[in-house]
Write a structure and sequence with these properties.
Blueprint: E1 13-26, E2 29-35, E3 40-46, H1 52-60, E4 66-75, E5 83-94, H2 108-113, H3 115-118, H4 122-144, E6 148-150, E7 155-156, E8 168-171, E9 174-178, H5 183-193, E10 195-203, E11 216-225, H6 229-250, H7 252-257, H8 263-266, E12 274-276, H9 277-284, H10 295-323, H11 331-366, H12 376-383, E13 390-396, E14 413-421, E15 426-433, H13 438-447, H14 456-460, E16 469-475, H15 476-483
Parallel strand pairs: 3-5, 6-10, 12-13
Antiparallel strand pairs: 1-2, 1-4, 2-3, 4-5, 7-9, 8-9, 10-11, 11-16, 13-14, 14-15, 15-16
Helix pairs in contact: 4-6, 10-11, 11-12
Bound molecules: 4-amino-1,4-dioxobutan-2-aminium adenosine-5'-monophosphate and magnesium ion.
Magnesium ion binds near residues 418, 427 and 430.
Length: about 500
């Protein structure tokens, strides 16, 4: 029996097993929050209604102790799941040792060091449930649309996305790389099956520590024969709409737990604006407005209000710190003010981070050089102006991967498309139409200083029944991060791998 099914057993006796995620005592009552992996439920042990030994056992439950209980399911609207359990019997599996991450104010590094335990917190639990729903939705979407799932190799002999962030490994005295992308294999499979998608781990030796980068992440890469870049964009839009809609419908509880304001997610039904690279650059530089909003002016206004908020917060902290020094102040009032001060200090830290970030964003927006790839700051600047994902297409060919098709209408551009998530999140999808001209590909491979012999098999695809085709890659963790509005991608995957992070 599981917590998620309690509504079916109202008024009946049930047996539940799990862990104590919280406990408080009050006048002959023990309130234990049981979590069993499917949810959280308040269980009440009443000294006047159970055997003395049961009440005593309940009182011994330290945080994260494992136990089972029997009790009656009672409706209570105030509870998150709508039900509580009035306990009659209780058996302990293990009384946990002092739980190391019990306090609220642990820093994120400490929590990440204890990721194996942090995963049990309600917020992390909710994020993992949402991640699971997203994964399921992705498979549903592709399977329902006649795509064949293919597993691309992890050991590869060639680079797909440039040579700067490859992980090398010894493969029986040959050099092998951990796959950066399954795309090239996906293209081969698409020529066999028509429509395919990969869903697998990918590796990039990202030497920078940013809120967007992992060294190991999961990528979903569909590849479609007979698709051009516009068909590709239509598919991306339908795909993301489906996944986000499923989460909105099926993860209401989880979204509430993490405090996600879903208004922006509901915009997923609106068309995604499609901007050329040229338009995107004009918007970033403040030469073109979006719905009456100008990137530079918005940032300047926001910086001014952040600076004002910093002053006001500092003042309030000082006032409260002065106040609690008043002789004879009641304990309760001191405690109340102290917790206010702690909260204000947290807010101040967030504001100060913004005050450091915004000038950097302004700087990179003002000085953006036409022809460059968009950096993290540029993506932040442009996507803060939108409340739906945007698609930026037709990129200067020099900044994009070797395999993208040159735009037949304008040779300066390649037919790549990036999807940028709103609210400052930035790139979640990269894709495009593939070059079909073998000679052009050979030139690009040489230009990128890639070893031609490792790509001969790929070039074969252009000799034997070459067709227009396109595809894209979605970074699963980037999507989870945006949907859950997480401050950093590390919370979107069970055990994040980043530079300097190999344990747990
Ligand atoms: O834009 P990228 O590099 O594109 C490709 O790999 C193509 N082969 C995809 C294709 O067309 N089949 O990566 C695709 C996506 C990015 O948009 C981003 O969401 C994610 O993969 N990604 C990362 N996610 C987390 N950490 C990293 N270091 C990432 N690098 C890319
Ligand atoms: Mg990209």
């Amino acid at each position: 029996m599981y917590i998620k099914d309690l509504s079916k057993y109202e008024g009946q006796e049930v047996t539940l097993r799990g862990w104590a995620s919280n406990r408080r005592s009050s006048k002959g009552l023990e309130f234990v929050i049981l979590r069993d992996g499917t949810g959280f439920c308040q269980c009440i042990v009443d000294a006047t209604k159970v055997a003395a030994e049961v009440f005593e056992k309940a009182g011994k439950l330290k945080l994260e102790s494992s136990f089972s209980l029997k009790g009656k399911v009672v409706k209570d609207e105030r509870q998150l799941g709508g039900y509580e359990v009035h306990v009659s019997e209780l058996e302990i599996y293990q009384i946990a040792e002092e739980y190391p991450i019990a306090k609220k104010e642990h820093g994120v590094d400490f929590l990440t060091d204890n990721r194996h335990l942090w995963l049990r917190s309600s917020r992390q639990w909710a994020i993992m449930k949402i991640r699971n729903r997203i994964i399921y939705s992705i498979h549903q979407f592709f399977q329902e649309n006649e795509f064949v799932e293919m597993d691309a190799p992890i050991f590869t002999g060639n680079a797909c996305e440039g040579t700067t962030n490859l992980f090398e490994t010894n493969y029986f005295d040959e050099t092998a790389y951990l796959s950066q992308s399954g795309q090239l294999y996906g293209e081969a499979m698409a020529m066999a099956m028509g429509r395919i998608y990969t869903f697998g781990p990918t590796f990039r030796a990202e030497k920078s520590k940013t809120r967007r980068h992992l060294t190991e992440f999961w990528m979903i890469e569909p590849e479609m024969a007979f698709f051009d870049i516009f068909d590709n964009m239509d598919l991306i839009e339908a795909f993301l709409r489906r996944v986000v809609s499923d989460v909105l419908r099926d993860c209401k509880n989880e979204l509430t737990i993490i405090g996600r304001d879903t208004a922006v997610l509901e915009n997923i039904t609106k068309p995604f604006p499609r901007l050329t690279y040229d338009e995107a650059v004009r918007i970033i530089k403040g030469e073109q407005d979006v719905n009456g909003k100008n990137s530079i002016k918005e940032l300047e206004t926001e910086l001014a209000s952040v600076l004002a908020a910093i002053e006001a917060t500092k003042k309030e902290i000082a006032e409260r710190e002065e106040k609690i020094k008043t002789p004879g102040m009641k304990k309760g009032e001191i405690g109340f003010n102290q917790s206010k001060i702690d909260k204000l200090k947290q807010e101040l830290a967030d504001l100060e981070e913004q005050a450091r970030n915004i000038p950097q964003w302004l700087n990179s927006a003002r000085n953006f050089t036409y022809g460059n790839d968009l950096g993290g700051s540029d993506e932040t600047v442009i996507t803060r102006l939108f409340d739906v994902p945007i698609m930026v297409y037709n990129w200067p060919h020099a900044v994009k991967a070797f395999y993208l098709k040159r735009d037949p209408d304008d040779n300066r551009f390649a037919r790549g498309v990036d999807v940028l998530a709103p609210e400052g999140y930035g790139e979640i999808v990269g894709g495009g139409e593939r070059e079909t001209n073998e000679q052009m590909l050979r030139e690009k491979i040489t230009e990128h200083e890639l070893p031609m012999e490792a790509f001969e098999w790929y070039l074969d695809l252009r000799k034997y029944g070459s067709v227009p085709h396109a595809g894209f890659g979605l970074g699963l963790e980037r999507l989870v991060t945006w949907i859950c509005k997480l401050p950093h991608v590390r919370e979107s995957i069970p055990f994040p791998r980043m530079m300097g992070r190999l344990l747990p």
